[in-house]
Amino acid sequence: MQIIIIHHHLNPGGVSRIIQSQVNSLKNQFPDTEILLLSGKAPDHDFFKDRGVKVRVKPELNYLLNQDYTVEFLEAMQKDLSEFLRKNIQRDSLIHAHNMNLGKNPVLMLALSEMAADGYRLFNHCHDFAEDRPANFEFLKNIIQTKLGQDLQKVLYPSYPNYLFGTLNDFDRRRIFKEGIPESRVVFLPNPVHFEAKKHFAKSDAKRVICQALQLDEDKMLITYPVRVIRRKNIGELILLSILFEDQAHWLVTQPPKNPIELVDYKKWKQLCSRLKIPLVFEAGTRVDFEQLLVASDVCISTSVREGFGMVFLEPWLLSTPVMGRNISYVTEDLKKSGVCFPLLYEAIKVGLKNGAHDFGALDVQVQQEIIKQIRNDEDEKEKIKKMNPQLETLFRPVGDLLIKKNKEIIKSKYSLKNYAERLHEIYRKLAQ
Predict the structure, then answer these.
(1) Domains of the chain
(2) Within the chain, what is the greatest distance between any pair of CA atoms?
(3) Among 104, 130, 341, 362, which has the minimal tally of Cβ within 10 Å of its Cβ?
(4) Distance (Å, whole) CA 35 – CA 207
């Protein structure tokens, strides 16, 4: 059985990590599996080459710029992509396409959808959805429907016996049912969670090394947001917490964004923190060993407002580091069902505005920044926010070793690469029938 993996790019990030896990899990459990990877950009060929995976790069598979393309350009691109895909994919192969429904390359999505209509077997692995990103959805609609005259609903959600959808959580699974796809054609595929530790770090030793390298006080808690800062990660809420509890902890975030559009807001946040002397540590992951930083941290935090699977809720536990922060119920519901416990999550942080109380995370970035400016040196305003949010005081409760051990064991057992490989194989068998 030949598996064709398709993704827009293999740049470092969430989906690329899952593709690497997909390859590792299949090659470990089913070493004879033949895998071909098609991508618009592949900076790290060696990882795949070492595992016997062929990589073919075609730039047109990558994201399209969100601009006004002519019909002639789009039709030529569709013809070119279709020829490339059909040349490289045999009729009896299984296509495993990642994030087709994100809307970043509507022409690729249309080409694959038409192949499925012709009988090619396709597994659409949905990490994200264009419907959650208005700009993406409008771009998709403009190209597929307006320019190319296709039925957008049928391209997004075709119902063929040779076409399966895969989702990272049950919420997204139910979302696809509502689009008219039968339950038998939608499978639940949670991500594998593993951390290939390069070294063993004792927590106390790691904290001492990290604090010395970053010139931080070892007597304070170390709270790390292990994330590349993009808008949905809600960095403003982390900054708000760092102001409210400045005396109790150092607050760190690990990586800058790569997307030039995301960099605009990111630079504004950095400038604001510099101007107001807010001691949030930016880009800590570029200055110290990332694994050692997670081990050294007393807690990892997430203030994200939207996730697909929610790796940040699980991965730190494998390094004996608890997770605190904003709950995303449609993500954590699935994780709790597997037995993982989250004692340090809150639902929202309320702040008072002229027209009443509002969830800080739901506010526009400019409004968030104004609030931060207002409370930076105003202890009365800080106390008002704390009183409005008594749940925040529970964030600093210690998490016992037994709970940490229990969570670690559940994650290792239920989200292992072995389980992932077996689930993938089961999906492929279903598609091959």
Answers:
(1) 2-192+416-432 (3.40.50.2000), 203-413 (3.40.50.2000)
(2) 68
(3) 362
(4) 41
**Phi (first) and psi of residue 4, to 5 degrees:** -105, 110
Asked if 48 and 22 touch (Cβ cutoff 8 Å), the reply is no
58: helix, strand or coil: coil
Question: Considering Cα of 398, then 307, then 249, then 375, what sign does the dihedral take?
Answer: negative
Give how far Cα 243 sits from Cα of 42, 227, 237, 357, 395, Å: 40, 20, 10, 19, 15
- Residue 219's contacts (CB-CB under 8 Å, 6 or more residues apart) are none
CB neighbours of residue 386 within 10 Å: 13
Contact between 16 and 7 (Cβ < 8 Å): yes
In single-letter form, the type of residue at position 194 comes to H
* CB neighbour burial string for 274-296, b if at least 16 within 10 angstroms, e if fewer: eeeebebbbebbeebbebbbbbb
Cα–Cα distance, 281 to 398 (Å, whole number) = 23
For residues 142 and 189, the answer to whether their CB atoms sit within 8 Å is no
Q: How many CA atoms lie within 13 A of 217 on its CB side?
A: 10
User: How far is Cα 425 from Cα 427, in angstroms, rounded to an integer?
Assistant: 5
Per-residue pLDDT of the chain (433 residues; tens, 9 = 90+): 799 999 999 987 789 989 999 999 999 999 999 999 999 999 878 899 999 999 999 999 999 988 899 999 999 999 999 999 999 999 999 999 999 999 999 999 999 999 999 999 999 999 999 999 899 999 999 999 999 999 999 999 999 999 999 999 999 999 999 999 999 999 999 999 987 666 788 899 999 999 999 999 999 999 999 999 999 999 999 999 999 999 999 999 999 998 888 999 999 999 999 999 999 999 999 999 999 999 999 999 999 999 989 999 999 999 999 999 999 999 999 999 999 999 999 999 999 998 889 999 999 999 999 999 999 999 999 999 999 999 998 899 999 999 999 999 999 999 999 999 999 999 999 998 8
- Choose among 315, 417, 308, 415: nearest CA to 23: 417
